[in-house]
Amino acid sequence: MTEPARETSPRPPPSLAIRLRHWRNRQIASPRFRRLMSRLPIARWIANRKANQLFRLTAGFIHSQILGSCVRLGLFDLLAEGGRTTDALAEACQLDPGRMLLLLEQAERLGLIRRMAADFWMLDDAGAVVAGDPGLAAMIRHHDMLYRDLGQLDDLLRGGAPEDIHGTELARFWAYARGGAVAGLGAAAVAPYSSLMRLSQAMIADCVLGAHDFGRHRCLLDIGGGDGAFLVAAATAYPALELRLFDLPAVAARAEEHLAAHGLAQRSRVHGGDFGQAPIPDDADCVTLIRILCDHDDGPARRILRNLYRSLQPGTQLVVAEAMAGPSEGARLAASYFSLYFLAMGSGRCRTGSEIQDLLSEAGFRSPRIVPTSSPLLATLIVATR
Fold it and tell me: C or N: which end of the chain has fewer Cβ atoms within 10 Å?
């Protein structure tokens, strides 16, 4: 029999906090201790709360599938027009009425819809949010791909070499994540992810625009700006702001059409290239990186920032906006989600604010400071100066 590997370096003596945590864990793991706690009213309340939290984790996949089915069947869109009966919804969704009722009852238990009368259903708060946000609904549909990639997470964690991970659906979907000559990607390769990013941009745009005053700037350049959804939002909020966008050539062509469709052709200029190495236009006094650094590992992220520093004029303000790991509930939720999403994607990671500050300082940017937003679940800002 092979002996287990022994530790080669001695562990430091455990601190008091470690000893207390070990004692606590042993108690909680003991069925006898849990039975004792169930007899005490206050302890029973705490134990039930902890049990419910654990069950939410256990049942999380089922809950996500209920939400996904509601979106795919168009249930929230149907109820956005007003309340409906089970039979009416069953006919519209092409489901057996009994199965329709089964889904409706579970969606009610998750706070997505509400039974207003014996057989009359309307949206609850969470369902109303999904119904009113096409980007959120698109992301929920997109998660079908993520769930398939994470179906055997332990295998993905053992992936090893990047080329093994690049076999995932997410890596194929996010074409630039595969590396190589990204500037040569064609329209067919960039269309799926560009459309998804445009649809999902509304909430993060509101979050960023609410945290930073772009009215103090003359010209805004959005790096990796996709179809230009953020620039459209910024242009609406700040009518005097000149607009610039830089992205891969095939994406830039889509952005030009999108900005023109919103009547912004005269206010905007679009440039195509690889923002990790191509010269960046230097006529803007504010540059944004929205959900860009998080998509890249440290090496490519450093190249992007160094290229920006080389290209931009002194005094240009850089605004980094993305979900960041941190102590708040929203930041913790974002980090646990994006850390596994980027693993399946084969590129990027969810960094802390201080890690991004270090990357900015290393590239030469001055005085990087963290700016909180209304929703750390969506984004936190870091503002620095060239």
Answer: N
SS (H, E, C) the chain: CCCCCCCCCCCCCCCHHHHHHHHHHHHHHCHHHHHHHHCCHHHHHHHHHHHHHHHHHHCHHHHHHHHHHHHHCCHHHHHHCCCECHHHHHHHHCCCHHHHHHHHHHHHHCCCEEEEECCEEEECHHHHHHHHCHHHHHHHHHHHHHHHHCCCHHHHHCCCCHHHHCCCHHHHHCHHHHCCCHHHCCHHHHHHHHHHHHHCHHHHHHHHHHHCCHHHCCEEEEECCCCCHHHHHHHHHCCCCEEEEEECHHHHHHHHHHHHHCCCCCCEEEEECCCCCCCCCCCCCEEEEECCHHHCCHHHHHHHHHHHHHHCCCCCEEEEEECCECCCHHHHHHHHHHHHHHHHHCCCCCCEHHHHHHHHHHHCCEEEEEECCCCCCCCEEEEEEC
Report the alpha-carbon distance of residue 254 to residue 187 in Å, rounded: 8
User: Between 204 and 319, whose confidence is greater?
Assistant: 319
Q: Which amino acid is located at 60 in the chain?
A: G
Task: Give residue-wise pLDDT tens across range 1-23.
Answer: 455 555 556 677 788 888 888 77
**pLDDT of 210:** 94
pLDDT averaged over the chain?
88
Amino acid at 106: Q
Statement: residue 51 has pLDDT above 90:
no
- 108/363 Cα distance (integer angstroms): 50
Q: What is the mean pLDDT of residues 207-211?
A: 94
Residue 4 φ then ψ, to 5°: -65, 150
